[in-house]
Structure prediction request, 144 residues.
Amino acid sequence: VMAAVTQYGDTLQYASIELKNNKNIVLTAVKNSCSALKYASPELKNDKEVVLEAVKQDGMILYWASDELQSDKDVLNSMRDFLMSEDCPNNEFYIKAKENLLKYDREDREKELLSKLADLDKLQAQQQNSINQPKAEVKSRRKV
Prediction:
C-alpha cells in the first residue's frame, strides 16, 4: 500500500480501514494527491498535520477535513495562502471561493474595527466618569 500511495495517493481508497488510519501511509498519500484525504480515517481527517499537507496543495480539499479543523485558524490561513497563490486554478469554482474569502476577510476586519471602536468608547466613558466623579463628591460635601 505504501508503494501504491507513493505513486498515486488516491489508491488509499482501496486500503484496509486499519491502513487508512495509519498516519505514515495517509500522509504519504496526501502528499502525492491531496484528494486522498477523503479516504483517510475520521481520526486522520482530524489530524492537523495531515490536513495542512492536503490544504496547502488545494485549499478546497478542506471540505474533507473534520469539522473541528475546518474552523482551525492555521488550516484556514493555509487555505487562504493556496487560494491567493499562482498555483490556484483559474476557474469559476476557485474564483467564487476567492470572492467569498475576500468578502469574509473584509467582514472580519470590519467586525474587528467595530469591536475596537466600542472598546475605545467604553474606555472613554470610564475615563469621563472618573473625571466627573470627584466633582460630584465635592458638590455633595458642599451641600452638607
